[in-house]
Amino acid sequence: MKAMVIGSGLGGICTALRLQRLGYKVEILEKHHQAGGRLNQLKKDGFTFDIGPSFFSMSYEFKSFAKEIGIEMPFEFTALDPLYTIHFRGSEKRYSIHKDLQLLAREFEEIEPDFEAKMRRFLAASGQLFHDTIDKVVKTNYTSLFHFFTTMATVPPKHAPKMFRTVWDEMSRYFASDTVKQIFSLVAFFLGATPFNTPAVYTLLTYTEMVHDGYHNVKGGMYTIVETLMEEVKKSGITIRYNTEITGFQEQDGKVVALADQQGKLHKADLFVINADAAAFRGKVLQRKKFTPEKLDQQKWTMAPFTLYLGVKGKLPNIDHHNYFLGNDFKAYSSKIFTNDAGLEQPYYYVNVLSKYNPESAPPGCESVFILCPVPDLRYKPTWLDREEVAQNIINDLSQRIGYNIADNLLSKTIYDPLDWQNTFNLYRGSGLGLAHNLNQIGAFRPKNYDEKFPNLFYVGASTTPGTGLPMVVISSKLVTERIQKKYGPVH
Ligand SMILES: Cc1cc2nc3c(=O)[nH]c(=O)nc-3n(C[C@H](O)[C@H](O)[C@H](O)COP(=O)(O)OP(=O)(O)OC[C@H]3O[C@@H](n4cnc5c(N)ncnc54)[C@H](O)[C@@H]3O)c2cc1C
């Protein structure tokens, strides 16, 4: 029985390997010239950059995946400590975020009395929510809305108010200092949103970062995940074709019998798993009325990334591996930035100095630097003719704040604006993390991992269930494989 996987993002690769283990003959078709999707790599001017993800949480999901497909853990990872460092514009003070709460409390002793006790209370509540939902709600294949609601009804009712409060409101129940609230609500940005419009249920992410496993770097860089999994793909006899974009389909007797690529070539299989965005694919390729651009534009999408990949001569001072550079008008900035109502002259951004933990990513005496600035998606800012100017603002701001002239020491510079992200990986309107995670776009309300019409068509990845981020996508591959297995059984 032949399964065809469309897209070689992490979701596609993991699903291909899982299906191969169940006895399917698997082929992957990929639009880009190399595997990985958003988890990709750029090599340029002697530097190596991870283009998207720079760390991950819930490392045990990768371990379970390796075990389930019967391989040794293919890559090595190390826990981050500190998790990250925060800089506020105009202040010399840097906050280092440690998992050790006593050490962490020292960072905040001047601005938040009794920080440790407050944080323990906050983490106890978010931890309970995490453990009450992760297996039951997040890792479930829903069969209907009724199934979803009955599952939700089993979550202890004490968590219900968190559905109606925002992350910011929840923080305010425990902490008085705006600085503390800003720092620990940054997790909302990992969902591509802001703490002011993200439901408080996602404070469970603070528990995952601070207690339940933390964050991890991959030895050799994040792309090692893809390289090592692709070795396994090769060993398993799974074929992959690059530069092949699916643009159409052929149906017969109520099933998809083939997908057509941009040249009109037909690719036949018994079943298909779509790793392209689950909402956008239904609209663009399947021409579904519920997923037209007008309908998709009314959905909530996560932020678009504006990313810079810089090769810098010299070693950067006053900066760690993972750093957030924030301004001092957090509330105003975050309420305006995603709708293009805030200028990008003084942006908020994240900086990852890959060469600090992975020296081979830069020539000796140099640094390989990744900068991610969340910006409006293409609905709100469709053109990026000002990309050089935006990049220059960020480079100047960072130079000033760390006391090192990056512009004068630049050996390599690459910019990806939201148009690049859209065009390279078919990300809808350049949205970096896919569909947002508000309550009417999760669980049974998210685009399903099986097709509404064709029984042999399935979906995996960030815009289907359970959601975005590397561990979630690994879980997504497990969920879709379970669906397929339930329908077809193992085919040995
Ligand atoms: C800038 C950035 C930073 C991020 N940082 C982190 C982080 O630090 N930690 C973390 O956990 N997550 C992070 N994420 C999120 C993470 O990258 C994604 O959730 C995850 O990689 C999504 O994987 P996926 O398999 O769903 O999709 P993708 O990686 O998007 O893969 C889909 C693949 O399908 C291909 N494709 C699309 N359409 C077609 C078609 N029609 N025909 C053929 N092929 C097609 C695409 O080219 C792509 O290769 C980040 C994302 C971005 C953009």
What layout of secondary structure does this protein have?
Blueprint: E1 2-6, H1 10-21, E2 25-29, E3 41-44, E4 47-50, H2 59-68, E5 77-79, E6 84-88, E7 94-97, H3 101-108, H4 115-138, H5 145-152, H6 167-174, H7 178-184, H8 187-190, H9 204-210, E8 216-218, H10 223-235, E9 239-241, E10 246-252, E11 255-261, E12 266-268, E13 271-274, H11 278-284, H12 293-298, E14 304-313, E15 322-326, H13 330-336, E16 349-353, E17 366-375, H14 387-402, E18 410-416, H15 418-425, E19 457-459, H16 470-488
Parallel strand pairs: 1-2, 1-13, 2-9, 6-15, 13-19
Antiparallel strand pairs: 3-4, 5-8, 6-7, 10-11, 11-12, 14-17, 14-18, 15-16, 16-17
Overall description:
The chain has 492 residues and is α/β, with parallel strands linked by helices. It folds into three domains: 2-33 and 242-298 and 437-488, FAD/NAD(P)-binding domain; 40-99 and 303-432, Guanine Nucleotide Dissociation Inhibitor, domain 2 (2-Layer Sandwich), CATH 3.30.519; 105-213, Guanine Nucleotide Dissociation Inhibitor, domain 1 (Orthogonal Bundle), CATH 1.10.405. It is built from 16 helices and 19 strands. The protein has helices spanning 10-21, 59-68, 101-108, 115-138, 145-152, 167-174, 178-184, 187-190, 204-210, 223-235, 278-284, 293-298, 330-336, 387-402, 418-425, 470-488, and strands at residues 2-6, 25-29, 41-44, 47-50, 77-79, 84-88, 94-97, 216-218, 239-241, 246-252, 255-261, 266-268, 271-274, 304-313, 322-326, 349-353, 366-375, 410-416, 457-459. Strands 7-6-15-16-17-14-18 form a seven-stranded mixed beta sheet. A five-stranded parallel beta sheet has the order 9-2-1-13-19, with helices on one face. A hairpin with a 4-residue loop joins β11 (255-261) and β12. α2 packs parallel to α16. The longest helix is centred in the N-terminal third of the chain and has 24 residues, at 115-138. It is globular and about 70 Å long. The mean pLDDT is 95. The structure holds flavin-adenine dinucleotide (FAD). Residues 6-12, 29-32, 37-39, 52-56, 245-246, 275-276, 305, 307, 372, 425-426, 432-433, 461-462, 468-470, 473 line the site of flavin-adenine dinucleotide (FAD). Flavin-adenine dinucleotide is lined by residues 6-12, 29-32, 37-39, 52-56, 245-246, 275-276, 305, 307, 372, 425-426, 432-433, 461-462, 468-470, 473.
